[in-house]
Amino acid sequence: MSTNKTKSGYMSTPAGKALPARLREQADKLRIKNSYKEAVGKYLNSVMLDRNNAQTYYGLGLCYKNLGKTQKAIEYLEKSALLDSKNPEVFYELGLCHLKDEVPCKAIKCFIQSIQLEPDNPEVIYHLGLAHEMAEEQDMALMIYQKLIEHSPEYINAYVRKSELLVQMELYKQALGLYMDVLKINPKYTKIYSEIGLCFDKLGNKAYAKRFYKKFLCSDPKEDQANIVLKRVEKLRKIKPEKRQLSLV
User: Would you call 92 helix, strand, or coil by DSSP?
Assistant: First the structure.
């Protein structure tokens, strides 16, 4: 009895169909362990046997993204999106790659596609705001962060990023209110003490500025940040206190 050992015959057998799936599973495990180079080899072997699996291309894209090969990541993520246009994660990862490449218009398009498929993912909405910032559309970014705050009130990144934008626009009182909201949500979020100190500083409330600068210094910041704040505290000490201080709010 003859057996058909052609490539097409081999791939038509159940064992042949199972092999690319097994290789993909092995690659997924390696990727989860951050063994990206090893995972790439497994994924590519899987692709050689099955060129129509969206998850394989998605895994390859993630590996190349983590290896810093953004263009290759985009190439494989786009192939995954063509095979499965209903996966919001693919468009989110594509958006991140375009952000890294500093192409905000493409990033915005990808993030919107992801949001249309999964409207309530705050991380995607947040990065959409970052993409609009990169496109120098600050008003749009502010609106996105505010909507995110309203719909995901525990998502601290939206408060912080909106505050940073407001500080850039010299709207210190508005920024200060948001920073205080962050501390209400998470009193241990000590990394913003210096920003709160800055807002009080700019608003002329030197006493509160020193208080939060000192809190920041006690939170064990990085050396370069600590040196900058310490110099400002020393300068504030030499300034005579004003008779009136601005209110906390």
Answer: helix
